[in-house]
Design goal:
- It is a single chain.
- This protein is an alpha+beta fold.
- The protein has eight helices and 15 strands.
- The chain has helices spanning about 15-30, 45-55, 65-80, 115-130, 150-155, 170-175, 250-275, 280-284, and strands spanning about 60, 85-90, 90-95, 100, 105-110, 110-115, 135-140, 160, 180, 190-195, 200, 210-215, 220-225, 230-235, 240.
- The strands form five sheets. The chain has a six-stranded mixed beta sheet, with helices on one face. The chain has a three-stranded parallel beta sheet with strand order 1-7-2. The chain has a two-stranded antiparallel ribbon with strand order 3-6.
- A hairpin with a 6-residue loop joins strand 13 (about 220-225) and strand 14.
- The protein is flat and about 70 Å long.
- The chain starts with 15 loop residues before the first helix and ends with a helix.
- About 20% of the residues are buried.
Amino acid sequence: MPSFKLKAKFEPKGDQKQAIERLSENISNGVQHQVLLGVTGSGKTFTIAEAIERLQRPTLVIAHNKTLAAQLYNEFRCFFPDNAIEYFVSYYDYYQPEAYIPQSDTYIEKDSSINEQIERLRLSATRSLLERRDCIIIASVSCIYGLGSPEDFINMTLRLTAGSLMDRQAILRRLVDMQYKSNDIDFKPGSFRVRGDVVEIFPPYENKTVKLELFGDEIEQISIIDPINNKIIQRIDKALICPASHYAVPEDKLKRAMKNISLELDEHLKLLNEQNKLVEAQRL
């Protein structure tokens, strides 16, 4: 696994050297809270980058808005071009929560617009955390909100090895469970297509596709393909395919959730009827 390797045309100057030493030492000693002071343009990002290289630890950088997060993302990508620098912010361009006004029996449907590029970057960040330690995540405050169980996400990943035995139908069922969509016509991120003994997968967090060539139940060959010209970029021995959504859950957990929702609905309907809220009960 690559280590953090800072690449910059300049060296620490002035108070930066002392700040890097103290930041690194305090983190190594388990200090939980530190504050790095400095005016705009004083090199705070570079100072943190130097500390990351010294400590060699995965790092989460939280910014208070998307604009600042994007700026930091570009700066850290320049400082660590050989490492996994990822961007994780809210993917909503627009969000209208659902609402109900019982006085007029008005239901306002939930509406939202999701930015597919940002969603791809979010999934890429999650994938990098699973695969490597040389990872810096630049995030907005939205990263503190739950995305489901990390264990479920890890358990639902599909690990493929050239030369191993795996039934083609089992691969296709697993992809569907991971919320990939079968699409032979419009092959786009988050989909897969089947052509005889060849299965092509387009992970939503990549700009390349994974091609599986099967011989019976054996995975004969795995290739990384350029989706534009369909040319082989690389032959690989192993591939890790992550779910197409953070909200993919195992089937048994989904069934339990549906059962609990049904029970909760029955209890809530009973409560509404007891309170003589007949309009609300009828809508449910």
